[in-house]
Amino acid sequence: MYLDTLYDLTIIGAGPAGMTSGVYAARKNLKTLMLTSDIGGQTAWSSGIENYLGYTYITGAELVQKFEEHMMKFDINVQYTRVSDIRYLDELFHATTSDGQEYVSRAMIIAAGKSPRLLDVPGERKFTGRGVTYCATCDGPLFSGLDVAVVGGGNSGLDAVVQLMKICPKVYLLENSNALRADEIMREHASRAKNVEIIFNSSVVKIDGGDFVETIEVSDNLSGNTRNIAVKGVFVEVGLSPNTGFLRNLVNLNQCGEVVVDCEGKTGIPGLFAAGDVTNVPEKQIIIAAGEGAKAALAAYSYLVRLPDAELEQAEREAWT
Amino acid sequence: MSETKTVMVYSTPTCPYCRQVKEFLTQHNISFTDKNVAADISARDEMKAKSSSLGVPVIDVDGTVVVGFNRTKLQELLGLS
Questions:
Q1: CB count, 10 Å around CB of A77?
Q2: Which residues of A does the annotation mark as catalytic?
C-alpha cells in the first residue's frame, strides 16, 4: 500500500543515533517519520553505563527510557516496523517495510545500528529463546541456579560473565583465541571468580538438548578434540554486524558492511545520511552515536532548505495528499 | 472500545523490553498482572510451560501467548488501533 504523505525526512532506527536525529529534526520543524523495529537499539542491552555524560551510573533500560521520553515530546511519526528495501527515485527515497507499506521522503538518515552476530552452529536457531540468548541483561536472571556458558571474551562477554557469576553455580567462558579481549578490570573480575572457568582456544560446534538447551559440544581449536559440557544457557557474545542488508547496493559499504560517511554523516547520495554504529565511525559508543545523529539531522536540514524547490514545499505536499 | 481481556506479563526487572511492554499496556489502559520470573521460580516454570521458551517478556492475552514485545500482535489481540 502506498501512503500519500511526503515526508521531509525518514529516520531508520531508534537507537541513540536515530532518536537524537529525531529530536534535532523535529526541532527544525521537519516533517519526520521514524521507521524502527524497537526503541533503544544496543543501549537497551547494556546492564550498566558509566560513561554517558550526566550519569555516573545508569542502566541501559533507564537511559533508553530517558531518550524515549524526550523524543516522544516532539511531533515524530514513529512506525514500528522493519525496513526491507530502500529505493532512490527522482531524488526521493522510497522505504518499503516488511508489512508491505511504502513511505516516501525527500531525505533519509540510516541509523539502523547493529545486531548480534550468530555462532552459526547446529542447534543455535532451534534453541534460540530456549536456552540460547543474545541479551544477558534481558534473560540472565532466568538462569539463576543453573550452569551456563558465555561465548566470547570481549567486553560484552565479560559483562555477561560478571552478571551471571553472581547467580549461577558455574559459568563457562569460551574464547576462541588464547587471550580475553575485554578491559582489564572485567578480566580481573572473571579470573578471580571461583565459579568461572575460562576455556581458551575453544569453539562451540553444536548446541543440543530436548525442549531446552542441555549441552554444548566444544572443540579445542589447537588439538581438534571435542568435549560435551552440560549447561542450561548459552549466552552468545561474539560481536555485532551492521544492519545494512536492506540497503543492498544503494550506498558504499566498507569491508565490515558499515555505511561509509563523511564527518557530516553524508553518504555518496544527496539527501541520504547515516549515523551511529551502522556507519564507519571508528568508535561505537552511545554518546558518539548520539552526536553523530545530531550531525546527520543538521546536515539533512541544511540539504533540505537548499533544495531548489524548497519554497514550493507546501504546494508539493498538497499535490501528494 | 475493546472487551476486557485477561493479560499476564512475565518479566524480569532488568529487561528493557519488559518495561516497554508494560508501558505500552498502561498507555492503552490495559490492566495486567506482572509476574517477576527472576524472583518467582514457579512463575518462571509457568512461563516456560506456556511459551516453550526461556526469554522475556512473555505476554499472555486470554491464553494466547506472545514471546517478545511484538507490538503489532499485541495490538491485534487487544483490539487496539
A1: 13
A2: 135, 138-139
Residues with Cβ < 8 Å from A268, sequence gap 6 or more? A251, A252, A260
Residue of B nearest to A126 (CA): B53
> How many angstroms separate the Cα of A39 from the Cα of each of A42, A62, B80?
9, 12, 20
Answer whether B10 touches A (CB < 8 Å). Answer: no
For residue B38, tell me if it sits in a domain.
Answer: yes
- According to DSSP, the residues that pair with A109 across neighbouring strands are A11, A273
A-proximal residues of B, 46-65, CB under 8 Å: 48, 52-56
Tens of pLDDT, residue by residue over B19-64, are 999 999 999 999 999 999 999 999 999 999 999 999 999 999 999 9
Mean pLDDT of A156-171: 94
In a domain, B12, yes or no: yes
Residue ranges making up the domain that contains B68 = 7-78
Q: Is residue B41 part of a domain?
A: yes
Contact criterion met (CB < 8 Å) for A138 and B52: no
CATH number at residue B46: 3.40.30.10
Question: Which domains occur in chain A, in start order?
Answer: 2-116+240-320 (3.50.50.60), 132-236 (3.50.50.60)
pLDDT of residue A137: 87
Total number of domains constituting chain B: 1
pLDDT tens-digit map of A7-33:
999 999 999 999 999 999 999 999 999
The CA distance from A264 to A254, in Å, is 17
Q: Which amino acid is at B36?
A: N
Provide the shortest C-alpha distance from residue B16 to chain A (in Å): 5
